[in-house]
Amino acid sequence: MRQTALYSVHEIASSSGVMVREYASPAGTVFAVGWEGLFVPDLQQLLGAYFDQYQEGVKEQKASYVGRRPLNLQLPGLVVQMSGRMRALRGRAYVPGQIPVRVKLEELR
Amino acid sequence: MRNRIPIALLTASLSLSGFLIGCGGSSSSPPPPPPPPPGNNVQAVAVNGGPVPGQIYPDGAFTSVTVCVPNTSTCQTVDGILVDTGSVGLRLLASAIPGLTLPKMTGNGGVTFYNCVSFVDGSFMWGPVAQADVKMAGEVASGGSIHLVQDPTGFTVPTACSNGGVDEDNLNALGANGILGVGLEPLDCGPACDPSAGGTAPPVYFSCGASGNCQAAFVALAKQVNNPVVLFSTDNNGLILQMQPLSAPAATATGSLIFGIGTQSNNQVGSAKIFTLDNFDNFTTKFNSQTLTGSFIDSGSNGFFFSDAAIAQCAGNSIAPGFFCPASPQNLSAQNIGVNSAQSTVNFSVGNAVTMFQSNPGDSAFPALGGSGFTGSFDWGLPFFYGRSVFVAIDGQTMPAGTAAPPWWAY
Known about the structure:
The complex is a heterodimer of chains A (about 110) and B (about 400). Chain A has 2 helices and 7 strands, in the order E-E-E-E-H-H-E-E-E. Chain A has about 110 residues and is an alpha+beta fold. Chain A has one domain. In chain A, strands 1-2-3-4-7-6-5 form a 7-stranded antiparallel β-sheet, covered by helices on one side. Chain B folds into 2 domains: about 220 residues, no CATH class; about 150 residues, no CATH class. Chain B is built from 3 helices and 24 strands. Chain B starts with about 25 loop residues before the first strand and ends with a strand. The chains are: A alpha+beta (about 110), B mainly beta (about 400). Chains A and B meet through strand 2, strand 3, strand 4, helix 1 and helix 2 of A and strand 3 of B.
């Protein structure tokens, strides 16, 4: 675990090739998760109560365009982004209103 | 310091120890077409709007493939196949080959092996692994595995595969009859899915009974869905995807897939610059003083995708959500840097997608199409290929003397 004055980061490596990072405020609230590796991690587990919102949002967004691209899902109270290719995936999800002040989005990966 | 953090975003319901990645044409029987001339390694590609009637797939490069029941002349040719240097393996909608019955990969106890692939737009493809011979140009990939995309009958796609995403199991959802993955790797999963990996099987291959009960499963390398190119008898170490130069929107654009690297007079590396890659097959792009270490070239992305807060995005309810809509065309520049320190500067433009689509009705080729991507990576999509020959050197294959060990890109 790494810790800064603003948040702590917990890294979890799975046996099947994905690294997950959790970003928690000093009060213990997880305000962001990031991942990278061979596969997309279990998003239901990772997003918890936000999973249904993600599921609805991605369905709606995918229906709004023709083509293939990185995910940039900006929902009320939830942002989910993914990039990469097969076997080299990365992504993050965060709750904008919960990010401690002075934390830059670039730090969340 | 706390030693226990809830794993789910803003919830405390799951323990860390619980975290294991759980997601983890027409039929042509006789007469057979005349064989192409020997040495034909060139397959035509076109940006043509794709195969869905009444719908334009912007900046999608499509080709056709012929799939055959192994070791027979029972074949079907399918067009509208998206050429994708960002994935590996041929994935065909089962509905596109209604007249062809391909043998499925089965295992002990009557199980069938299924494949699952998740794409970074939140979509997924599911379906059985099937054996097929795959033919393109004068090349034949014999004895390989492909992914036949179709929903299971009698049970639903396991959540470990769907993972909250969108099922691209039909022509309208996929916008193509299939995806031809000709990326940098020989297999779609590789050692991580081989039984020798041990531990938990990744959510790529599943063994399912007739009524479901699907379990993530290991599949030996030799049976995994493969890059068709590596099973060609010659010209099997890589490929070139080249598209015509294009400086303005056009109805269509043409190009070629040229198989092999340094194997024939038409696929020599010549003066192309080679960019070697990191363990995730990425290189670095420097853009706007950002150093983006997770960058890549992907013909299956239909635009330049990168993060730039200074460029306006198209409205979410416009005809081009997710693309950039600057007030005037932006002429931009970036540097690509390989692990081998090779560098090149790429000049490119990003225009207003709504204006481009509205002003060019019916067009499908847009050299200045871009959209917002994820911080940390630059996704050089299909527009990057206009006016370039991009070499894809496949990991583990034998390259011409004097060139770097693969995988690498060159252009």
